[in-house]
Write a structure and sequence with these properties.
249 residues, Dihydrodipicolinate Reductase, domain 2, six-stranded parallel β-sheet, 7 helices, 11 strands
Length: 249
Amino acid sequence: MPDLVKIALIGFGSMGKEIKRLADNSPEQFNVTEIFEIDKKISSDGKYDFDVAIDFTHPNQVIENLKTLAALGKNCVIGTTGWYDSLNDAKEIVEKANIGVVYGSNFSIGVQLFLKIIELSSKSLNQFEEYDIFVHEIHHKNKIDSPSGTALSIGKVIIDNLERKKEIFTETSHTKISPEQLHISSTRGGEVPGKHTVYIDSLADTIEISHSARNRSGFAFGALKAASWIKGKKGFFDFSNVFNSLLEI
């Protein structure tokens, strides 16, 4: 039986509530012992009983939350997106405090499988110049960042594996784009939890590879998996490290 992991939730919006619901349904493995939100903020001089914090807050709060957790000597899972321009700062905080952190643009196991498929597809296109590739993502009207962190992760996988694509282009195109650009477009509206589609297109045919989230439970499940994985570890990890470990790659 896996060891009990005591969880602190930083942020108790839709994701925080879903994580608690899943944790409560597996009491032998997870126990939510602390919940921090607007009326109760985590403090560097507080006395808390948890092993790993899970942060689903706001991009502007991630570094300050991480500094507080570093001062407490607590490990963390960062599910918030849109803060990656501060990635080096976060890594420096983690290394200096000798704590463990897992971050990621998407904690869905299904999305990680999706990225593996995109990796293979992108490599294959090096042999077929007739095909172009581009990405579109759709999210609910309240999502703060655009394009999504997952879309940017998809873009990085494509650029790392398809030699003729050199840069990501995320703006609306009012003219033709360079063959070396990978266009990632976004739509915001409704209550869509998240849909990402990679199009592989030629004069002859179109291939569409899509991942659609039905709800937030997949993200919450992955965040709990990451919390269990990072308990007792030191270092700065991407969620792909957790996924590869689960696959024993």
